[in-house]
Amino acid sequence: MTHILHRHCRESLPTVDTGEGVYLIDTKGKRYLDACGGAAVSCLGHNHPDVISAIQRQAERIPFAHTGFFTSQPAEQLADKLIELSPASLSHAYFVSGGSEAVESALKLARQYWIEREQPKRTHFIGRRQSYHGNTLGALGVGGNQWRRATFAPLLAPSSFIDPCYFYRNAMPEETRIEYGERAAQALEEEILRLGPESVVGFVAETFVGATAGVLPPENGYFRRVREICDHYDILLILDEVMCGTGRTGTFFAFEQEGIVPDIVALAKGLAAGYQPIGAVLLNKHIYHAINDGSGFFQHGHTFLAHPIACAAANATLDVLASGLLDEVSDKGKSFYQRLVEAFGDHQHVGDIRGRGLFWGLELVADKASKMPFKPATQLHKRIKHIAMQQGLMCYPMAGTIDGQQGHHILLAPPFIINEEEIQHLAERLTRSVNEAIA
Ligand code: PMP
């Protein structure tokens, strides 16, 4: 009898014991190849000596000091490192304990920014349908995933939603990708005008959609147009890079590949590679100055803000990434994609293989020609997960609503330290798991 409230209450899970490189090992000694980093978290694998010793050193020096009384060296260093990695307009960092807290903090920063600028009527956020930005009530409020919202409606943040940018399913006949991207961005302008710009706080989006809607890279030009629209109407652009940031798509920030800079960006998951819970919000200097020169007080905060051990783990993670590992993500990603194409390119139930860097989605469909959702859809993701775990593979199959249809995809986000042989094993185990689940 366990007294933990597990997320999937009735599922019985193996008990993890240790980790070694890209493997997790349970208490019975069974090894699981990590194909998803949990949920795009474990970018350095499971026993990285540098991060472990950074945590030990910090625990021995000072594990916790309340931010109402002290700043700490690890927190100051982490802010310096992140700002150094950021474009010049992002000037300050705020540290919390995870992705939902990072998004929540971003929303409150954005709200307070407009209060400081004496525009208190700006209370409305625009998000995208099917999106997920976290499970706290505010973050859930800007998430457009109906299933997640339903139990907790009415939520806290007044929000409305436009379609995500998804050429593959949403494009009109004859439309090019560029035209589609422009049209998808245009929906933001229409929504701003419908609401009245004077009531809008900002637009919230994942730069590169992760789990919920099935790993969707943005169309080329989409975010440039979004940025122009936000600038034109003086709307804040808030990017959620909780999953796609910290190197996952091949650059430290996914937005670097879009040629834009957001006003606020949220990071988490890979920031301390799973060795400690941490999230970060980076903000534009205008937002910082509005608050600092205005009330001088960000009306937000948690006890474990800028936790010294978490910041020390993040510093060590960033050092490992900077020592050459981040530069390997793009090339490894190409070979990862090649293996997926070899394994699933002709698979009649795989509709699309999409992604960038070491962030990939495998879409499961009824058949390649119609690309209709796999039928019977129920529980396919659970079956794949179960069989994969039996095969010694941890991947992240999900049921998501795409273009109004219930669809399935598998999120693949392995540790950046994965090697060729491990990629090969991963592809083999995944093929067996998918085939067995579908049979
Ligand atoms: N935003 C995105 C894009 C996410 O994928 C997640 C987590 N899956 C969150 C926010 C919330 O992060 P956390 O679970 O750490 O609260």
UniProtKB/TrEMBL annotation:
Q: Give a yes or no for keyword Transferase in this entry.
A: yes
Q: Where on the tree of life does the source sit, at the highest rank?
A: Bacteria
Q: Which CDD domains match?
A: OAT_like (cd00610)
* A molecular function GO annotation: pyridoxal phosphate binding
The record, for InterPro entries, names:
Aminotrans_3, Aminotrans_3_PPA_site, PyrdxlP-dep_Trfase, PyrdxlP-dep_Trfase_major, PyrdxlP-dep_Trfase_small
Q: Name one GO cellular component term.
A: cytosol
Pfam families membership: Aminotran_3
- Residue spans making up a coiled coil are none
| Cofactor(s) needed for function | pyridoxal 5'-phosphate
Which keywords belong to this entry?
A: Aminotransferase, Pyridoxal phosphate, Transferase
Q: Which SUPFAM superfamilies match?
A: PLP-dependent transferases (SSF53383)
The entry's protein name is Adenosylmethionine-8-amino-7-oxononanoate aminotransferase
Per the UniProt record, the source organism is Veronia pacifica
